[in-house]
Batch of 4 targets.
Target 1
Amino acid sequence: MTTPVVPQELPATLGALRASAYVARSVREEMRANLEERVRSGRALTSAVLGYEDTVLPQLETALLAGHDIILLGERGQAKTRMIRSLVELLDEWLPIVAGSEVRDDPYAPLSIYARELVAERGDDTPITWVHRSQRFAEKLASPDTSMADLIGEVDPIKVAGGLFLDDPRALSFGLVPKSNRGIFAINELPDLSERIQVGLLNVLEERDVQIRGHLVRLELDLLVVATANPEDYTNRGRLITPLKDRFGSQIRTHYPFEVSTECAIVRQEARLPRVDRPLEVPWFIEDIVTRVSHVARQSHVISQRSGVSVRLSIANYEIVVASALRRALRTGDAAVVPRVSDLAAMIQSTQGKIEFDTMDDADADQVIAALISLAVRQSFMEHVVLEDASAIVDAFASEAVVHTGDDLADQDYLGVLAAMPALEDAARRVAGGEPSDGLLASATEFVLEGLHLTKRLAKDASGARALYRSRTR
């Protein structure tokens, strides 16, 4: 992202800043005021996260209005990091700092020895620079090898070699926390920090200062701290020390989307689909099935629920199914790219690696994933499709008729089948809706056939993504 250019009309010196009637306020006051304005105008805290409108976001708004540091608890893929990053929008667009300051010193109340000496020397001529709100966010992924120097700071040997004494405050090199002064500091997977380093954050969260070893230096920091943690680490392994946990004002539990429709909306928003040289149509039932697979997996006793089933699984599956349809269209010359039920077999490769198994060997992963997909198809069919003429379709197979489907068949191959089976064509058109294209009609045909098979009205001989549907009485 490109940082906006500083407007020319903003003050460039401390004297001009005072003359402009600028009033400094803390990060929490700043975010609270901007959030209050959003709430009054009916604007959402963030539009980047779906499914939290009535659960997580109201709690997050309340915590920010209270001025709390926040810890978000949730499994992987629950948009915790995205929510944290969206908080930047609650900051003022531009913030004045003393030019050259490492810790974004407030020109009215400088913290660092550098800024204090500069203001004392130059007074109203002290140069001012402006920082955009996008630069006032710092993020750290916690890991066991994270050091105190990374977060707080350390003596810089280069500065010492340049002639400064070890006890000179100017010899310090600040860590990420002091450099986040007057902004937001986010730390992901907080329990992964060693306990020794967690202790170093106690003063940051309570007394609002940092102390660097060997130096009598205290920096009264102004920042909002937001952390994330997996609840398994947080509650069971006990790796987050109690005094640090106590210093977070609010603890908010995130969750996966409750509704399949909500997850569909997230997938449509986040999926990165390939550019195609022809129309791309994703049938409603394919979207429903792809996202339903994740919901089924979250309820499966075979899948490790401690690790969670991320929404990223739905996104990856959606992308791979579209890619499978694109591959077919390129080979067959179909006029449009339309995913079908036969393309769902490609989800095995995108699902492996994103789920963990509790009770079986990974060698059986293919069969487990295929079973999850079949269950999702069956649920979607039974929930959304009512076939008044299902018996007529089944009867059409009684005279030794069979139907071949597969991810390598062109759309036109299905039109001949529908011409020979009017009852199947009527059902496919109702499922597709409107005036369906050939590709959408072919996709709906596969969905109806697979639904009839999974509800035990047709037999199926399958090999990979290819299938033969026939009467169960043969």
Target 2
Amino acid sequence: MALGAELRRLGKHSAIYGLGGLVSRILAVLLLPLYTRYLSPSDYGKVETLIALTTVIGIVLRMGIHAAFFRFYFDSSAPEHRRLVLRTSFWFTMAMATAGLAAGLILSGTIAELLFGSPDDSELVMASFVGLWAGMNYEQLTSLFRVEERSGAFVTASLANILLTIGATLLLVVALDQGPIGVIVGNFTGTLLVYAALIGYRREQLGLQFDRSLLREMNRFGVPLIPTALFLWVTNFSDRLFLVRLADTTEVGLYSVGVRIASAMVLLLTAFRLAWPAFAYSIEDEREARRTYAYVLTYLVLLTTWVATGLALLSPWIVDWIAAPAFAESSRVVGPLAFAAVAFGAYIVVVIGVGRARRTQFNWVVTGAAAAVNVVLNLILIPRYGMMGAAVATIAAYATMFVGMAWWAQRIYPVPYQWRRVLTAAAVGVALVVTGKLLDSGFAVAFLLALAYPVALVPFGFYLPAERKAIAARLRPAR
């Protein structure tokens, strides 16, 4: 398949995933007034704590099987091979999720006492582990839509899950006044119902088949990714914990608003991340795969840098539009956090080479080094610079992760990445942001600078002759 067709295929699926992600985020925001009205801050804190706990436990229980499923599914196009990979992954996930559920139910009182100082919340803990079981199994089964590149079906299942979750939550929290347990049960009700429907839909593909030797190979690929995922979690969330301890809650509040605005980048990257593994592994020809990966990195950095540049330049007005005047300082961290997401997006691209070569054993070293950079810089910078120190620590951590993974991936799976163009795309964005901040000339100038990003690349020779020709053809008026 031609490169242009491959990139259009990736773009189409990313756009569909992005639409589903956009709807889910809007609905999640709409639920916030419900939570804050019917839950006390303490109850909401318990819910968030249990979500964080089960997220970490889920990373451990999965043992990387989710990532291994994508890699091994494309080893062969034979239906019997793909069915075996599916069934082995399905039953392994079911067994680990059930073991986690059993442990959570048995130890619920102990866990509640350790977290909240009293065993009275053991029912909340039990409900959270039911949610963990549902989430792990649901994720494994919906991954089949992703390897089949049926992004529309994936988004349909996701939206059905969201709508059922909202309905169940409204019933339990508002009508039945079940408080925090209503939120947790409501959150997994939709997942369970859609999962049950998917079991029926996939009944011919599922069966009592399990290959231990295949599982050993998949675990050899996936287990090294457990610390990788845990270190990523540390890099993503530790900054707020450090701000609470080393600064104050005001800094946390200001920083959190900046994080929310920069999360526009997260939506973009989540859509790409959902489409990318299946797309990347589905390219059978190694030469074509390497060439495609190179262009994907260039274009992803181009697109994400443009978005980051716009967010950084327009952040003062965005904050002014969506937040109270007391949160005006939040705009200072939007730029660094948005450009940190650019580095994370680049990491998502280059790490695929490690997966293709099945050499994941070193991944945790790279993400561990990034987490260490994040922790050390948070400790050094937050006491002096507050939330800006946390933002700098975040961008340094993600830059470390990208550079480290690019170095490692190139050693074991060389790809002709267009490094000059990648660096040019990022540097021009940063230069425009610096220019806009120095000029400080109002919204119109900031908006024009953000809009001018693609044009600003021209003097630096970013565009290839074929790209210039294609752009000129699109800009030429139709006759």
Target 3
Amino acid sequence: MPKPSRRVLPTVIGVGIVTTLAVDGAVLVSWRQADDRAERPVGVQRYVAASTGTDAAAVQVAPLRGRVTPHLLIAAPTTLPPQVVERVRTTKGVKRVEVVDAAQAMVGGKRVGLLGVEPSTFRAFTPKPTAESDALWRNIAGGDIAISFTMGNDGGVTLGSQIPVGGRTRQSQLRVGAYATMGLSDVDAVVSRSVARALGVPTGNALLVSASKRNAGAIAKALRKKLPKGAKTVEVSPELDIPAPGGQVPAAKGEVMTAEQVRIVIRAAYSRLGWPYVWGGESEVEGGYDCSGLMQYAFAQAGIRLPRVAADQARAGWIIPYSKARPGDMLIWANDPTAPGYISHIALYIGDGKMIAAPRRGTVVQVQRVYTRNLKGAVRVNPRLAARLAASGL
């Protein structure tokens, strides 16, 4: 079958901006985050690499002094001028702003979203286990790269190994200093800003904004009027409203899949049985599927567009208790130990306590019994909402 079309990747996924890495001038094509985790208990500390034999141990970073939640992402093709950054900082409802460098890069042979950050300040914008690890941020400050838990665990990138990072034709070797998910969809790699500059990543072309959660949409609208042409503003990983086990199913108002669409989705998922789990796989071209790539493929056969990663697919409809799930719903898990609550795995419910899933590296697409560890509920897909999210890049 032909490979699904992929739009040219924005500066940071979710923002419609094309960017390049100066190291080779090549426009980098979108490669979205894969996500999956089997039902296995894990600890957090083991995902920070030892510093022995590197300069990272001697690097100091400021201690964590409280965490903030990022609500908005602003990104542009080039450096955002200081006066623009100041206008954002002083906008009513904005609590804190962090300047970052953002681009798509080749990391260990995969195209992923990469950020260049100031470790001492950016850590406050990350999930608690990630934010609290001094060793993790020392490693990044010392020149290491941190990759998302799923890229490392299910992408087969070994902690502590040296991997190539950069453009498609010119790259540098960096040590994988940690597995650490930043809680930002499609951002799979983080380096220091000095390393980012050496790689050719655009400097200061993106902002993370912590704002009033209640008025994030209105603040985003106000900010758009203050930004230069080409800059974009989107909401960052809005929190999911996870229902209680005995919760009620929201009124769908007819915006759900038809019975025929449900049959097509399930039949399409069945047709992929036996295909290998491949991190980032979304078609036969990659030789297999990851969990969210499988969902995207199956729903596409019924004419339903889904976003690419599990964290975004979870927002493509109504989240309902698993006890209310019916065939055609998606099931979601928060299995990532470095980012509690972040949806990192997804599967298709087919009824009778069973699902079709692409479990993890080393397995194949298969029918499984539903497991409840870290299960957050089911998603009843709203095709119209799903299409809007897919079109916006969220």
Target 4
Amino acid sequence: MRFLTADYLFPLYIAPIKEGVLQISDDGQVIAIFKNRREVPQDKLEIFEGILCPGFVNAHCHLELSHLKGNAEKGKGFLEFSNIIRQRDSYTDTAKQQAIEKAEQEMIANGIVGVGDICNTSDTLEQKQKENLKYYNFIETFGVDVNKVYVVFNQAIELRNEFRAAGQKASIVPHAPYSVPPVLMQKINNAFDDNDELLTIHMQETKEENQLLENKKGPFFDWLNGMNATSSIWKNRDKSTDILQELGDKKVLLVHNTFAKKEDITDNYYCTCPRANLYIENDLPDYSIFDTNKLCVGTDSLASNNSLSILDELLIIQNNSNFDLNTLLKIACKNGAKALGFEHLGTFEKGKIPGVNLIKSMAENKITKLI
């Protein structure tokens, strides 16, 4: 049993506590919180400089792309970035596995305890079975050619079943409004079952996405036509958020939202990946439009980021919003846990096993994972 205290304790379900004490079991379960250090045995007290908060939740990652780190040139836009992604299979299985293991270790070292991970392959499954982190695996579908929808969907079913058979949480999800036609969306809806809790989708990541759906022209229009894309993608949708009507009343996590406007925001969960947005598009969302009780944060992949650090992401958000520290930490911990259904993560409520991070300096990214 341990009694941990620092300059401030951030339980994230109640207000921060100056010199608050967190009592935690040897296996990391929260037993109690004390508002005064004198309430606990002084010889048991572990005193740290900085702040204590729960472990971080990385709500959006592509762990399987870790081997592509450094391949994409910054600021060239999504279409150029997508060409880099096509290189994913030009690497050996050994190189991929080594990159995946290293990336997971980086997340652990940076205080991450839970991950919402996009999967197009089973490359990460071996590492995830070690249960170093809690994962929600999103089996992504991308099928613009209506003649290939059945093949794309059946492959997704097989991959989802493979993850589930290995004891992993997994759901089939759409890639983006411009890459999933209505017929494929219907299949995704029909596949949603009692084991599913959440759908996620890339949303308004680029200006070209909005231009395609609102104006029926532009670089994405030409790109998709070059792939024999069905016109129902843009004819049936006048804006990106129209696809949400096809998802019904399911819980949804919308990712990126870099070019979203206030009128686009719905009662769903939102995830921002600021360093990836700067890396690919050199732009950021307007953080004032989001409900901070529904906003999460992710790192995206090492193909579009230099690090897998939630603290790095928070620093960007802090410099481009008016969010206070408690709000930033809720975005990094509590909201992601709620969105992904990780009931035992996110806050220091009694009975949870959320991990414990000691942040010595936000600006300098000095963090220690205590538990």
